[in-house]
Design goal:
- By secondary structure, the protein is mainly α.
- Helix content is 63%, strand content 0%.
- The chain has 23 helices and no strands.
- It has helices at 19-44, 53-67, 88-93, 95-98, 102-124, 126-133, 167-177, 192-211, 214-222, 226-238, 248-257, 262-270, 278-301, 303-311, 331-336, 342-370, 373-386, 399-407, 413-427, 430-439, 445-454, 456-487, 499-508.
- It is globular.
- The protein starts with 18 loop residues before the first helix and ends with a helix.
Length: 509
């Protein structure tokens, strides 16, 4: 195999887990349960009119269908007074929630949140788990592919760079750390059994870390659906051998909440043009067909509600809540908080949408064609947040996937430090710090710095588009070149100050 090639992972025959493996997974689940219990008990013990208010919206929409009332003509009880804002097929899917008690719905929905978070964590950080577990065809010495390509044989294109700049500084760090993927030597054939015992504990640690991201905390607080949509789209994009037609889950997610429709654009642009592949066109067609069928279904079952949504409710952005609120971290929300004339705000927004969409989808397409699937999904997820007219903080559940893309196979300490910084940034309630600074009414400081900090999560999402699209490919190239240099026989290693050696390193990247 040529160094730098992406490879598929060989499927191991399934065997019943040994007793140590069962005990490890049981310990991991108990650890997760203990760590998230304070968060769950706090929000499920909140006063009734503040508890899982978005779940109440879903459940009331399902109840409206069961009782023959208008889905888009009601609001939840005071003080929330929230309308149903989702497509009519979402109300159909919500009818089981209305058929059970409110207490049962709360606990069942909270369990679903953590189940889908677990799926998202597993798929986002799978390259790390493969390295710990000793899975073949992954996390090789070259550090080449840390994500599995959609189709066998597709190799990532690695951008050029100048790895010699950081050779001296990073060689010692790599030697000392050895990389998270090897997890103290438990990866590889000799340590497979030990690695499988450590995998559950690593999974538990990542689950706990992701649970306390602010967008995920808000999933539990409000009873939101976003992490379910993340899991559906992520599974559709990165599953190695899906049991369903690839694209079906994206179509389902799009029919339920529209914003996952960015993945239709993703596979459409990947399916045409230079390097396009037939499987991407097929994924697009399956997703589009699934979304279309689920969109048309309510016209047959609840036609009045379907027409009401598509021709009235959808056109009213204020139904989603106060668009200027701090929690709206989309580009439009940030512009609205500048309080410019409405026409100018709209023109600026349209221009920004065009520029960011071109930039983000271009890099997402390259990531997909290069075989870096998690990076591609993370970029498209950020597009769903930034391009939407309204994107609440809990919509940034895509940060889980961003972290997985940054960590990769866990062997590059630089990427680990960047991921840790991003994790901390989205754990802290930074936008609310901006509100506090503005409330201090300090001349210049409050209106300028306060507004910047208030938009912190949205601005962070914009920065992450650059990090994933530009910095990360360059960092991969640098680390791969350094890894190849470290693993090459001593006689073949170029001198640090030799010009031809530097050229070889760049070409190899």
């Amino acid at each position: 195999m040529r160094t730098g090639e992406a490879t598929t992972t060989e499927r191991r025959p399934w065997t019943w887990p040994s007793r140590p493996a069962w005990l490890s997974w049981l310990s991991a689940l108990l650890l997760v349960a203990a760590a998230v219990a304070p968060l769950v008990l706090y929000w499920l013990g909140n006063v009734d009119d503040q508890r899982l208010v978005d779940l109440d919206v879903y459940r009331t929409g399902g109840a409206a269908i069961l009782e023959g009332r208008s889905v888009y003509g009601f609001v939840t009880p005071a003080p929330q007074l929230l309308p149903f804002t989702y497509p009519p097929v979402a109300a159909l899917f919500a009818t089981p929630l209305a058929a059970v008690s409110w207490t049962t719905a709360q606990w069942a929905w909270t369990a679903l949140i953590f189940l889908t978070l677990g799926v998202s964590v597993w798929l986002s950080f799978r390259a790390v788990f493969d390295g710990v577990d000793g899975a073949p065809g992954r996390s090789g010495a070259s550090g080449a592919a840390d994500e599995v390509p959609l189709s066998p044989g597709s190799a990532p294109r690695v951008p050029g760079g100048d790895p010699a700049r950081t050779e001296g500084k990073l060689r010692g760090v790599r030697t000392r750390l050895g990389g998270l993927g090897k997890f103290g030597g438990f990866g590889g054939t000799s340590g497979t059994a030990m690695g499988r015992l450590w995998t559950p504990l690593l999974f538990a640690a990542l689950m706990i870390a992701c649970t306390y991201l602010m967008p995920i905390r808000d999933q539990v607080r409000f009873g939101q659906v976003d992490i379910l949509l993340v899991a559906l789209c992520l599974a559709d994009c990165v599953a190695r051998r899906p049991l369903w037609p690839r694209g079906m889950l994206i179509g389902l997610a799009t029919a339920v909440k529209l914003t996952p429709g960015v993945f239709l654009i993703y596979f459409l642009i990947a399916g045409f043009g230079p390097g396009a592949r037939r499987e991407h066109r097929e994924t697009f067609l399956v997703a589009a067909l699934t979304a279309a069928l689920l969109t048309l279904l309510p016209f047959l079952v609840i036609p009045a509600d379907a027409a009401d949504f598509w021709f009235r409710a959808l056109l009213d952005p204020e139904r989603l809540g106060a668009n200027a609120a701090t929690t709206n971290q989309s580009m439009r929300g940030m512009l609205i908080r500048l309080y410019l004339p409405d026409v100018l705000t709209s023109l600026l927004w349209v221009a920004l949408v065009a520029v960011v969409a071109w930039y983000g989808f271009r890099h997402a397409r390259r990531a997909l064609l290069d075989g870096h699937l998690v990076s591609g999904v993370a970029l498209v997820g950020l597009m769903a947040v930034l391009l939407s007219p309204v994107a609440w903080i809990h919509h940034l559940a895509w940060v889980v996937v961003v972290l997985g893309a940054l960590v990769g196979d866990g062997r590059d300490p630089v990427r680990l430090r960047v991921a840790a910084g991003v994790w901390l940034y989205y754990v802290l309630p930074i936008p609310w710090w901006g509100v506090t600074i503005k409330a201090m009414e300090i001349p210049v400081l409050s209106p300028v710095l306060g507004k910047i900090v208030q938009n912190g999560f949205g601005l962070g999402a914009l920065a992450l588009v650059w990090v994933l699209g530009v910095w990360l490919p360059r960092r991969r190239a640098t680390f791969q070149a350094l890894s190849r240099r470290d693993t090459a026989p001593e006689a073949e290693r170029p001198g640090r100050d030799e010009g031809p050696g530097r050229e070889t390193a760049v070409e190899g990247a």
